[in-house]
Amino acid sequence: MSPRRARRGVDGRDARVDMLRGLALVSMFVAHCAPNDGPFRLAALTEFATAPLFALLIGISAMIADRGNAGLPVAFVRAGVRAAVLVALGLWIEPWGAQVDVVLVYLALPTLFAPLLARLPDTVLLGIATTSWAAAPALLSWGRTRSTEALVAGDDVGHRLWDIVLAGPHYRLTTLLVFTCLGIVLWRWTRGVPAWSAGLAGLVALAGAALLMAAKTSGRLAFEPYDGSHLEIVLEVLLVGGFALAWFAVVPERFCLPALAAAGSMTLSVYVLQIAYLAWYVREVHPGERDDAWGNVGVLCVGALVLPMVWRSLVSREPWSRGPLEGATAAVTRVIR
User: Fold this and answer.
1) DSSP per-residue letters across 257-272
2) What does each C-alpha distance from 26 to 73, 200, 203 come to in angstroms?
3) CA neighbor of 66 nearest in space, from 115, 10, 28
4) Which residues make Cβ contacts (< 8 Å) with residue 189, sequence separation at least 6?
5) CA nearest 104: which of 264, 259, 269?
């Protein structure tokens, strides 16, 4: 079989990438609100998969955006705008009161570095990812010491920066960077090999993830979501890398679920709406209680699938049809040439 060509939607976007981003949203809703592990413990997997999948998609998006731009300086400035939007939005919505560790600020640095990473050869990217993986536990321990020292000294900015780069309780650059590099390498690889090769590699990786989870469940291996251990990162690489490979190999060439693709193209706006809803839920609907309920998962999933379609039906002009926040960001980055 010949290598597969990239599939483009009617608006020039790759619908498979948007749909995968939409699935990442669903995974996020389950991770945030599922009250138990669900059937076959699938809900437990979302705690491992969600943030790595978003970071992997940053790498894929950088590869797609890189085509036809004016060079690294332009790409870097545009990425800087997107990163600044993530930071500003993250700092804005964090105090709303949702029982969520807002990931936007943590994703800003991978977003900023992605254009540079997209221009590096695979061997260098794999070296960066391997080094980040190998050093992650030691850097986490060292970073938490520095973060605590900054907090004791009253240095709130320093404390936050240590958390973002090395010591966050759930997310940190040293881990997310592994998946941004992985996304770039996987995207290149799937463009140059037959579909069956990518699919087979994805299934093997998913089988490896299943074995690791089985060993964890039986008590033979000990690791937890967000713990920064070598085993946690290996599981996540197998899980999200394998799923992405299988996804791009199996999804039919012109297949598109419009609601899922619309949600995936409007991820930032949907994320902010999610935080607003969960903050309202724990402040007004059930004060003092947890937001863990399958009902909340359902509300968020339905909202993520319906609201972007409603927006697109009302707003047809590009780039605003992508979403209120996405449109504003794209309007700014388009003038940078």
Assistant:
1) -HHHHHHHHTHHHHHH
2) 34, 25, 21
3) 115
4) 122, 198
5) 269
Residues 32 and 291 sit within 8 Å (Cβ to Cβ)? yes
Q: Report which residue type is found at 108.
A: A
Quick: pLDDT tens for 267-276. 999 999 999 9
Buried b (16+ CB within 10 A) or exposed e, 169-201: ebbbbbbbbbbbbbbbbbbbebeebebebbbeb
What's residue 41's pLDDT? 81
- Whole-angstrom distance, CA of residue 169 vs CA of residue 135: 17
Alpha helix (H) ranges present in the chain? Answer: 15-33, 42-66, 72-93, 104-117, 122-152, 156-162, 173-192, 195-217, 230-250, 258-265, 267-280, 294-314, 324-334
Both tokens assigned to 129: 């990812």
**What tokens does 164 get?**
């973002």
For 102, the token pair is 């807002």
Residue-wise pLDDT tens digits, 277-308: 999 999 999 998 999 999 999 999 999 999 99
Q: Exposure pattern of 58-95 as b/e (b: 16+ CB <10 Å)?
A: bbbbbbebbeeeeeeeebeebbbbbbebbbebbeebee
Q: Which of 48, 233, 220, 59 is nearest to 137 (CA)?
A: 233
Q: Which of 112, 87, 79 is nearest to 332 (CA)?
A: 79
